[in-house]
Amino acid sequence: MTNPQQTDPAPAVRLIFEYEGDSVRLVSQQPVDTAVSSFETDATTRPGDYVVETRDDYGKRLARVPAREAFRGSAEVFPEDQKEPITRVDVEARGAFTVIVPAPAEAVQVAVVHVDPPEREPRSEDIIGPPAEVRQDVDLATFQLER
Amino acid sequence: MTTSDGSVQGRTQIHGRAPRNRAFTVVLLGDGFTSTQQTDFNTACTNFVTALTTTPPYDKIGRSLNVWRVNVTSTDSGADDPAGAGGTGATARTYFDSTFGANNIRRLLVCNSTTVLQTAAAQVPEFTVAIVVVNSTIYGGSGGSIGTYSLASGATEIAIHELGHTAYGLADEYACYACTSGETGHDVHPTGEPTEPNVTQNTRRDTLKWGWAVDPGTALPTMSNPNCATVDSRPSTVPAGTVGCFEGAHYYHCAAFRPEHGCKMRNLGVPFCQVCSQVIRARTKVTKNICALTPSRNAVYRYDGSGTSWTKIGGPAGQLYAGGWGLVATNPSSGDLYRYLGTPDSWQHIGSAGAQFAVTNDTVYGLTPSRNAVYRYDGSGLAWTRIGGPAGQLYAGGWGLVATNPSSGDLYRYLGTPDSWQHIGSAGAQFAVTSDTVYGLTPSRNAVYRYDGSGTSWTKIGGPAGNLYAGDWGRGLLATNPSSGDLYTYLGRPDSWRLTGSAGAQFAVASDTVYGLTPSRNAVYRYEGSGLAWTKVGDAAHSVVAGDI
User: Fold this and answer.
1) Which of B286, B303, B325 is the last residue of a domain?
2) Which positions 484-503 of B are in contact with A (Cβ < 8 Å)?
3) Least confident of B19-28, B128-137, B214-223
4) Which of A120, B176, B212, B234 is the most buried (most CB within 10 A)?
């Protein structure tokens, strides 16, 4: 409790993306003074999830947060009579989402990542690539952070 | 049908007092409200806050939640209502381009989510969730990265359900997808444990992800679907509120389980189940929630929330006290009280020495060194207000402040204005305050009682106990066995307790789980929520405290 001094909180950036199918575009990036909860930075992911990563100059991941509800191909339909079930309907995967990512000084790049996609169309380069059962995360797009 | 069809008027905070950079923040934006209808939007926002903050567990979350409204005018009133989806065919020029009838379903109400997110970010940069309130009495709404809902009766339920997805990562608990008669392809959930905290394929008691909430006497699975070709629509076979494993969830009739028979993530118009409530309580708090004082009391550390990473946030301290209002510590030499301001080594001197302090959701209370008066911190500088006379012990939590009479030991509740106290019970060996009541241990420690909320009425909820610990996690109360020291979690009904861990020197109940110091105080452990699994998260400590830190 001695020698109190003010320390700036870790910097963070809000990112807003637009997507259509698996195509994604960074609409805006904005420094924001807020704590990024460990609920976001420590979130468990499973195959098929989408996340946003910050990376350093060497492409090393610095932080990863989930992109909840992004790229979703269905929408909920709510009944007027609340005794009736909520249902889902298929929709075009198109819209926008936002995340806040920790952005330390070494973060120079941000990537939208499809985690271990469960199904992937075979491509010609896969023939000489890793065995089909060895799946990897897929970068849908990468963008430079404005620093 | 674009942003040329209106303008952003500005923002107003309408609920909450959390520091903006450490708050869970909901932003409400209006669409289809003309310049002369802004009062209607303001009223709708007030109604939303009322609906949200009277919905458990939001009713007990307190100051962690900030709500803002962003007033936006539209050229026209209402929203598009396409005739092709059964609507009136009306069109409306609105800022966010809201329309009913998406996918030819009239009550599927959508808008331009990019414009919504950009507007919310420009007005309230730290926002957590954005929700659009559409000026129409036609029933509708939708979820996704933003929520929408109309002014129709009951539509706020849509927004609250959608918060469960967008903000907390909760899964849908309904057991079908399109839910049409004869639906195929949703009989049996594919193998693979969902990551969401409120659905599972695992019914093993020792590893169930919400095992912390399951009474040892509850069967697992609790209800199995006898016909996987359809949704199990039978009423519950166990009392409402029983936590177990109910088959049918995550869009599948079988092989996926939900924690309770009913939950707002399954049907609108019903409460959140205990498991979803716990997730909401824990995750609404952006702040860290556990601190430790080193064995030699020469430094204060804050747990970073994962692994074994801790951050030093302060120097020597005599005692730590924490709660919803934050963390305070006494100077080991002078006894003066300091408040932690949220960044390492940033503390504010807020008061002089006291015999004891206690932290509620709103402030900190102190007992003078001679225990002849109780004071309330006014919130700024070094100003305190005397609120009561002599007291023996103070106990505080989300429910408020209670104090014992130094002579009789009787328990009194502080009613919020100086010298206004209510006698609520007789003496006890120990008391513990949760978010909704106070619990007491009889003088001989042979029974645990729960205060019923009025008069001096208490209900016995357990037998002998050694110590009580209270906080935000689960039902809020844990107790130790007086013989073995083993830790038990109270499950919300009399005599319903669950063994949670072995003996410890001290425990601290945080919003996400319970933390414990080993009997020799040589390590800090965190309870993992299922079985008897604990993980070491820190080394030796003198003490640990939990709160919004």
Assistant:
1) B286
2) none
3) B19-28
4) B212
